[in-house]
């Protein structure tokens, strides 16, 4: 703290600037409190003090949080201050609330975000960064290239839909920003849509505040869902990282323990080898003495073995003859059994064919009986129909006679009526001619007005239909992008989890293989020792049978060997117990792996639930689409119905005019002339 205060005063002296008392007092307070926060909020800073502070910030390594809210900064002052923070490596939080930053401020902030690599939080509330679109686009370019900022506050900055689209482009390229506050701006529908499209590609934004921006509720819900998906993804990634860290530690500890156990086993094995070497030296000396006596008796034993081999050869020949005779008997028995089986199969086939023929005959007889009954019923029905038709013909003849009589009566009455109507029409023709001209004029006027109204309504309905089709196309594109992004995320998460599982399983399998190889080596060594011991026992037993004088020495050696064998068995059992303990530990590791697999399966289930939710959302969108199509269809039906009604009205009017003209005296006069 003292270093920053001293540098500030020194730079003021060098630049010929009077140090500002409020700044010096604030530096004194921060020094007394031993805090790493510099709070200059509410103090109006001149351009000279801003230039001095910028030079001090270039050399500063103490303050991690700087608050410059409501400092009435000018454009030059903000430019100098922010230029001093370009290459600062200690400030992590910067507050510039209520300084009325405009075009130059936005440009310098963009450069700051592009150069600075330590700033994590930036507060720009109550400024005017969104008024100039070009400068705000430069600010967004800096945000896109930044890799450290996690929190950005842009409340009340007069950001419109153009600024929101620039922010959306920046969010597509940025991968570190987690919290973004855009409350009380003028983003609107178009800005909300552009932000929604950007969040479909950005996976780092967890919290997004958009209150007071005139954005529809459905877009706000979609934005909340996308941020929720990002937060869930971030949470799962953190959990997986923590679990992998814990598992790596446990695996490292297990490696160390197993290395220690392996070293201890190797030491015990070396000791056993030394003891076995000593015992083998003592026994080899005794065995050399015994072999000298055995070589003398081998000659007698060899003659006996030759006689035994001759007798064994004769026995083998007799056994081969007996085996050949037995094979011939077995072949005869097998041939007899095959002949019996063939005869039984032929009998069964004949019985089955006879049963099938009988069944077919029964079925054909039943079908013929059924067809005869059907034909009889049809004949009876035809006879009934003939009788009913004859009765109907008789009744029709009676009705024809009655109808001819009635028609004749009606003709006479109609002629009387026609004469009376002709008289009346001659009197009414004179009155109808005057009225006809007036009605024709009124009808023509009414037709023209109705045609104009119908044309205007048709144009309006066509415009509505075009708007609905555009909205449908946009919703379809958004749904397709959401589906593809969700599937890509699922595929990436699954591949990562599978690769991690495969690596862990392969490492554990390699450890098991190494331990099994060591086990097999130990077992081979033990088996070799046992074989050598069994050979020695066989030699000693032969010598005990053949030599009576050497029995005492062999018994003593056997006792010594049995004691050594017991010791070796005890050592081998102890080694087996240790190996079984290691195997138990490996099985415990395997159970832990199974638990991890269960957790992974649970995560996959959660991912499946998320995919089901996405599918439900897609189904809802498709239902909305179908409802809109149904509305369009109903409107088209209404338009068609209106056209048909107007056509019917026109036909009615035309028929009325024709009837009126035909009923006039001109029509009567023209008809007899024709």
UniProtKB/TrEMBL annotation:
Q: Which Gene3D superfamilies match?
A: Ribonuclease Inhibitor
Q: Which UniProt keywords apply?
A: Coiled coil, Cytoplasm, Cytoskeleton
What GO cellular component entries does it have? Answer: centrosome; plasma membrane
- Renumbered to this chain, region (Disordered) spans 334-360
Annotated SUPFAM superfamilies: RNI-like (SSF52047)
Against SMART domains, the record matches this protein to:
LRR_RI
Instruction: Cite the PANTHER family for this sequence.
Output: LEUCINE-RICH REPEAT-CONTAINING PROTEIN 45, NY-REN-58 ANTIGEN
User: How is this protein named in the record?
Assistant: Leucine rich repeat containing 45
Question: Which organism does this record belong to?
Answer: Poecilia reticulata
């Amino acid at each position: 703290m003292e270093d920053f205060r001293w540098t500030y005063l020194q730079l003021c002296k060098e630049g010929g600037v009077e140090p500002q008392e409020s700044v010096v007092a604030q530096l004194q307070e921060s020094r007394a409190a031993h805090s790493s926060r510099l709070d200059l909020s509410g103090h109006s800073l001149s351009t000279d003090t801003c230039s001095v502070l910028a030079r001090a910030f270039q050399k500063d390594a103490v303050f991690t949080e700087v608050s410059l809210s409501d400092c009435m900064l000018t454009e030059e002052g903000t430019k100098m201050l922010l230029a001093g923070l370009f290459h600062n490596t200690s400030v992590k939080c910067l507050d510039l609330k209520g300084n009325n930053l405009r075009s130059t401020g936005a440009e310098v902030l963009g450069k700051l975000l592009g150069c600075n690599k330590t700033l994590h939080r930036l507060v720009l509330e109550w400024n005017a960064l969104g008024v100039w679109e070009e400068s705000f686009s430069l600010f967004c370019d800096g945000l896109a290239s930044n890799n450290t900022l996690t929190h950005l506050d842009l409340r009340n900055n007069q950001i419109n839909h153009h600024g929101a689209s620039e922010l959306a482009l920046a969010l597509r390229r940025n991968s570190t920003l987690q919290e973004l506050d855009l409350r009380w701006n003028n983003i609107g529908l178009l800005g909300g849509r552009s932000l929604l499209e950007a969040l479909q590609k950005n996976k780092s934004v967890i919290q997004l505040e958009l209150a007071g921006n005139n954005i529809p509720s459905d877009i706000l819900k979609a934005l909340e869902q996308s941020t929720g998906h990002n937060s869930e993804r971030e949470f799962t990634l953190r959990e997986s990282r923590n679990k992998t860290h814990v598992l790596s530690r446990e695996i490292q500890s297990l490696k160390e323990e197993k290395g220690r156990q392996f070293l201890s086993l190797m030491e015990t094995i070396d000791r056993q080898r030394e003891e076995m070497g000593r015992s083998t030296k003592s026994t080899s000396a005794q065995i050399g003495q015994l072999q000298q006596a055995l070589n003398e008796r081998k000659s007698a034993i060899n003659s006996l073995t030759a006689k035994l081999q001759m007798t064994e050869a004769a026995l083998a020949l007799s056994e081969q003859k007996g085996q050949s005779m037995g094979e011939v008997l077995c072949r005869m028995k097998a041939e007899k059994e095959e002949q019996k089986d063939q005869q039984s199969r032929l009998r069964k086939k004949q019985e089955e064919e006879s049963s099938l023929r009988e069944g077919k005959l029964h079925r054909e007889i039943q079908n013929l009986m059924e067809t005869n009954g059907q034909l009889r019923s049809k004949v009876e029905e035809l006879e009934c129909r003939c009788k009913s038709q004859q009765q109907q013909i008789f009744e029709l003849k009676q009705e024809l006679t009655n109808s001819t009589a009635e028609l004749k009566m009606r003709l006479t009455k109609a002629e009387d009526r026609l004469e009376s109507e002709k008289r009346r029409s001659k009197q009414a023709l004179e009155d109808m001619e005057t009225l006809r001209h007036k009605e024709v004029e009124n009808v023509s006027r009414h037709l023209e007005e109705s045609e104009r109204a119908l044309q205007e309504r048709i144009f309006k309905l066509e415009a509505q239909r075009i708007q609905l089709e555009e909205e449908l196309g946009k919703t379809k594109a958004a749904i397709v992008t959401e589906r593809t992004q969700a599937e890509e995320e699922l595929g990436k998460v699954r591949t990562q989890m599978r690769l991690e599982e495969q690596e862990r399983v392969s490492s554990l399998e390699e450890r098991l293989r190494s331990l099994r190889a060591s086990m097999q080596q130990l077992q081979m060594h033990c088996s070799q020792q046992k074989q050598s011991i069994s050979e020695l026992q066989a030699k000693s037993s032969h010598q005990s049978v053949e030599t009576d004088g050497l029995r005492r020495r062999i018994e003593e050696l056997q006792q010594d060997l049995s004691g050594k064998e017991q010791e070796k068995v005890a050592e081998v059992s102890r080694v087996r117990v240790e190996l079984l303990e290691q195997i138990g530990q490996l099985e415990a590791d395997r159970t832990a792996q199974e638990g991890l697999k269960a957790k992974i399966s649970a995560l996959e289930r959660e991912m499946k639930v998320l995919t089901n939710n996405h599918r439900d959302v897609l189904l809802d969108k498709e239902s909305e689409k179908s409802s809109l199509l149904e509305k369009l269809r109903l409107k088209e039906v209404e338009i068609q119905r209106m056209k048909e009604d107007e056509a019917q009205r026109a036909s009615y009017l035309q028929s009325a005019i024709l009837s009126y003209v035909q009923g006039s005296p001109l029509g009567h006069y023209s008809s007899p002339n024709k």
